[in-house]
Amino acid sequence: MASLLTDPLFEISGRGPSTNKNFYNFVVTKSNVIWRWWLISPRAVYRLSKPGQLILSYEDFLDDIKLQRELSVIFGTGTLQYAKALCQGQYDYLERLPDSLLLRIINYLELEDVGQLGRTSHRFRQLCGSEEFWEQAVRRRCKTVSAEVSSLAREVGWRNIFFTNKLQLQKLISRRRLRGDEQRAEGTPGKRSETSHPDQKPTGSKPSGEGGNH
Length: 214
Fold this sequence. Notes:
Blueprint: E1 10-15, E2 23-28, E3 33-38, E4 52-56, H1 58-63, H2 65-75, H3 77-87, H4 93-96, H5 99-106, H6 111-117, H7 122-128, H8 131-141, H9 147-156, H10 158-162, H11 166-186
Antiparallel strand pairs: 1-2, 2-3, 3-4
Helix pairs in contact: 2-3
């Protein structure tokens, strides 16, 4: 599982609160914690100031209450708690898996479990409600998925296809076929530019009574 860990483990950047215009960067690597800051001020005394950087071991960061408080103020308590967990070796491996692999895992769950998983985090809520998940669920349930069903799914969504019984699905497909036939029928009337109007005289013909012998 350690091979799933990328370096850095976590990184976040941004400006401070409304009263603090400075820019900050916080990084947790596999071996240490890096805290950087850039002073942003209209005052001339700060214009030539260089960015600051502090590199700490995990142990020193966990003991640095002042830095933890500053990190919490700038990036929130959630970021602080997550950083502390990383420094304590508590890695969230699921969050590091790619979406494609997580979707394959989720598809082995029962639907009730999928619903509960979707409530655990914003990422899982998106995955459990995604078109990719429901398409995989339909294809796992059905041996084959026709082109008509796939086309219908692009209109109504794969989730609706999953929860629609076969009879109702056939009705939807039949209505879609009929609608398509009607649209094609409306678009196939003869091109009037190619046929003469009933009141239109053929080009080049002479009106009756003209040009004849009197």
